[in-house]
Every structure is written in C-alpha cells, then in structure tokens.
C-alpha cells in the first residue's frame, strides 16, 4: 500500500464514520500520512484525529478510537496504535514482528536458538593439517557441528604449536583415536599467507574464518579497525549496543516483552533472525564456518536501524511498543552472541 492509497483509506474511514453517525463533522478533502515522529510507531502516522476532535465535539482519543476500529478492518493494514494525545500509527500488513519468533529466541534456555540436542547427530572425526588456519577451522567446525547435535573430536596431523593455543584458544588433539562408527572429515583450507597471531585472538580468528576455505585469507590491520568498514567491528558493536539498551531500559524501569514493535524497516532483521537455524545447519552440513561469519554481518547490519527507536524520547513514558522493541533488540543480541561464541570470538557488553 502506497502513502497515497493509505491516505485514501484513512479518508474513507472518516467518511464511513460520519455516514454511520459515529462522528458529526465535515469530512476533510484529504488526510496527510507521514512517517511517525519521535515516540511513534509503524510505517505511517496521521494526526487526523486531533484535527477533527474540536469540530466533532469529542476528544482526540475518542476520534482516534473510532477510526482505529475501522482501519483495522481495512485491507493491507496490519495494526493500528494510538500514541500521545491521539496520533494514529499504522503498520502495514506483514510488517509486524511475530512475537513467537522473539519469544523462541529469548526462551531457548539450555539449548540455544538454532541448536539441536547433544547426541542427536553423527559421530565425526575432524582431521587437518598442522597449519594455523586449519587449526582454527577445525576448532570452529567442531563447535558448529556440536551445535547441531553431532559428537565431534578434532585433531592435527602433528601436535599444534603451543602459541596457537595460547593466542587463539581451542582444544585440538594430536591424532585422536578414531572410535567405531565415526565418519572422518579432512579439514584442509587454503593456508594463511602470513602469521595471524599478532592480530590477537578475535581479529585473527575472524580473518581466518570469514573467507571460504578455498579462498586465500587476508591477514592485515584492517581487522583491528574500530570503524564501520570492518565487518567484525560492526558485529561486535551491534551486540554491545543491544546490551547497552538493556542496561539503560532497566534504569528507566522497564524490561523487554515481545509484541508488535511498530517500526518500519524491521523485515530484514526478522528474516535474518528467522534464518539463523538454517545457517547453522548449512554451516555444519557444508563444513563452512564462513557462512556463519557472513550471516552475523547480515544480522548486525539489519539490527542497526532498530536501535535508535528502542528507548523513549525525552519525557515520554515507556510503553508496550518500547518493551517490544527492546525484546527484538535483545533477540538480535542473543543471536549475535551465540554466533560469535561458536566462532570462538568474544561478544563484549561494552565496546
């Protein structure tokens, strides 16, 4: 539905309310709809109820409620929320956040969202070259495969270098015994062209993991840059922002509660969150941790437009809409934290 079509829909609701005697007022020639201002929600908002209240001899809240009931029955409109003194905020059909998705993410408990119960998959043995990129790939593949229920052991052809373990972490054995009914998987990515250890654990892991295994990784200071051009920074920053919002909301006295968020532009985020289980399954099936790394960038970039609208503005009181937005932000942060954890990368609460 375009803004012009929505304007006509609102005007039709006014005309029908007048024809049915619910409102006694002259029908305006047109109704203006525009993106909601601070404290508003949905894709569009209109102040038509405030304009009609005095000539109708009614409060703007009463006029808004009359029009809301009619708009909810109109094709293409998903939700209508009244805010402030009588602003009508309209969400188009298909734009509302499914509370069930957010609830599923936040209530996952001991088995995180997208993970499968331990032992529900195969017995696998990862075996790779004694090379730093293979070492990191095996460690992360083991984590991802375990998240999908597989029983996994991993080992290098020769003992890994002590510095790899000291800097990069990970628990890789040297030629672990192959148990019966175990499928062996060789992990031999294109080797790193330079020593990644000077980058430190998080940046080094990201540099080795984000490219596909058949691509040559880039080992450089760009992975340490604290700016938007660095995908790792965007992922970790988005996670830190969601956690900061939770702290700030607690200070204002409200908590997350799944529900309609009334913010335009959330569809990419919803799609990315809903896609998380599929990405984990595909990363495990194709032995491709790069799929998870790229997915986290997608989630982080889709989260950013939501964040400025989570907290109330000025003296505005926290409402159900703010609690729902906070819940969606927390869900995004939860998915980002889980993905970073599977990659063996820290998910900071402050950045």
UniProtKB/TrEMBL annotation:
<feature type="domain" description="DALR anticodon binding">
    <location>
        <begin position="235"/>
        <end position="351"/>
    </location>
</feature>
<dbReference type="Pfam" id="PF05746">
    <property type="entry name" value="DALR_1"/>
</dbReference>
<dbReference type="Pfam" id="PF03485">
    <property type="entry name" value="Arg_tRNA_synt_N"/>
</dbReference>
<keyword id="KW-0547">Nucleotide-binding</keyword>
<keyword id="KW-0067">ATP-binding</keyword>
<dbReference type="InterPro" id="IPR036695">
    <property type="entry name" value="Arg-tRNA-synth_N_sf"/>
</dbReference>
<dbReference type="InterPro" id="IPR001278">
    <property type="entry name" value="Arg-tRNA-ligase"/>
</dbReference>
<protein>
    <recommendedName>
        <fullName>arginine--tRNA ligase</fullName>
        <ecNumber>6.1.1.19</ecNumber>
    </recommendedName>
</protein>
<dbReference type="InterPro" id="IPR009080">
    <property type="entry name" value="tRNAsynth_Ia_anticodon-bd"/>
</dbReference>
<dbReference type="InterPro" id="IPR008909">
    <property type="entry name" value="DALR_anticod-bd"/>
</dbReference>
<keyword id="KW-0436">Ligase</keyword>
<dbReference type="InterPro" id="IPR005148">
    <property type="entry name" value="Arg-tRNA-synth_N"/>
</dbReference>
<feature type="domain" description="Arginyl tRNA synthetase N-terminal">
    <location>
        <begin position="4"/>
        <end position="92"/>
    </location>
</feature>
<feature type="region of interest" description="Disordered">
    <location>
        <begin position="177"/>
        <end position="196"/>
    </location>
</feature>
């Amino acid at each position: 539905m375009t803004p012009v079509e929505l304007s006509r829909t609102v005007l039709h609701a006014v005309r029908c309310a007048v024809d049915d005697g619910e409102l006694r007022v002259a029908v305006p020639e047109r109704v203006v709809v525009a993106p909601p201002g601070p404290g508003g929600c949905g894709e569009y908002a209109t102040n038509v109820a405030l304009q009609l209240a005095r000539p109708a001899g009614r409060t703007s809240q009463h006029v808004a409620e009359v029009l809301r009931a009619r708009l909810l029955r109109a094709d293409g409109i998903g939700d209508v929320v009244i805010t402030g003194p009588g602003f009508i905020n309209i969400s188009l059909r298909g734009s509302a956040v499914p509370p069930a998705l957010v609830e599923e993410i936040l209530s996952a408990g001991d088995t995180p969202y997208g993970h499968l119960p331990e032992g529900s998959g195969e017995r696998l043995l990862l075996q790779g070259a004694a090379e730093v990129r293979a070492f990191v790939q095996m460690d992360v593949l083991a984590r991802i495969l375990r998240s999908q229920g597989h029983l996994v052991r991993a080992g290098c052809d020769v003992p890994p270098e002590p510095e790899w373990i000291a800097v990069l972490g990970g628990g890789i054995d040297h030629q672990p015994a192959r148990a019966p009914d175990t499928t062996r998987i060789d992990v031999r990515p294109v080797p790193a062209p330079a020593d990644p250890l000077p980058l430190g654990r998080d940046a080094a892991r990201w540099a080795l993991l984000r490219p596909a295994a058949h691509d040559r990784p880039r080992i450089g200071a760009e992975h340490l840059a604290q700016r938007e051009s660095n995908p790792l920074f965007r992922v970790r920053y988005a996670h830190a922002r969601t956690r900061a919002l939770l702290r700030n909301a607690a200070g204002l006295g409200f908590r997350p509660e799944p529900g309609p968020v009334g913010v335009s532009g959330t569809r990419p985020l919803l799609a990315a969150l809903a896609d998380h289980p599929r990405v984990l399954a595909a990363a495990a099936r194709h032995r491709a941790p790069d799929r998870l790394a790229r997915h986290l960038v997608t989630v982080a970039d889709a989260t950013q437009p939501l964040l400025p609208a989570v907290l109330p503005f000025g003296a505005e009181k926290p409402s159900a809409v703010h609690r729902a937005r906070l819940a969606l932000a927390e869900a995004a942060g939860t998915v980002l934290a889980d993905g970073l954890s599977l990659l063996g990368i820290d998910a900071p609460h402050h950045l």
